[in-house]
UniProtKB/TrEMBL annotation:
<feature type="compositionally biased region" description="Polar residues">
    <location>
        <begin position="84"/>
        <end position="101"/>
    </location>
</feature>
<keyword id="KW-0067">ATP-binding</keyword>
<keyword id="KW-0547">Nucleotide-binding</keyword>
<feature type="region of interest" description="Disordered">
    <location>
        <begin position="81"/>
        <end position="101"/>
    </location>
</feature>
<protein>
    <submittedName>
        <fullName>Uncharacterized protein</fullName>
    </submittedName>
</protein>
<dbReference type="InterPro" id="IPR011009">
    <property type="entry name" value="Kinase-like_dom_sf"/>
</dbReference>
<dbReference type="GO" id="GO:0005524">
    <property type="term" value="F:ATP binding"/>
</dbReference>
<dbReference type="InterPro" id="IPR050528">
    <property type="entry name" value="L-type_Lectin-RKs"/>
</dbReference>
């Protein structure tokens, strides 16, 4: 499990504070940690169109805007292979090799 997946898992369980480096010895502001973790997940959302602009992220980090509502479970990235198109004017060419003895 990668870092993002791990933090998203903790976020979904409501245990994101477990991701805080123990070397901080509990010397941190929990609201700031929550904000940083959620904005970090938002910025690394698997769907690029769901990621914030820098301006949006900064507003949230400065507590000038509400935290985004992220799903409890990390969304699964969807990739769509482009379909071949002949509308570009270029012919669609396929080749095959016949195997023989």
């Amino acid at each position: 499990m990668g870092l993002i997946e791990w933090v998203w898992d903790l976020y979904g369980k409501g245990q994101f504070l477990l991701a805080v480096d123990e070397r901080l010895h509990s010397d941190y502001n929990e609201k700031q940690v929550e904000c940083l973790m959620i904005v970090g997940l938002w910025c690394t959302h698997p769907d690029p169109s769901s990621r914030p602009s820098i301006r949006q992220a900064v507003h949230v980090l400065n507590f000038e805007a509400a935290l985004p509502n992220l799903p409890a479970n990390m969304p699964v990235p969807m990739y769509h292979a482009p379909t071949p198109s002949v509308s570009s004017g270029e012919p669609l060419i396929t080749t095959s090799i016949e195997a023989g003895r």
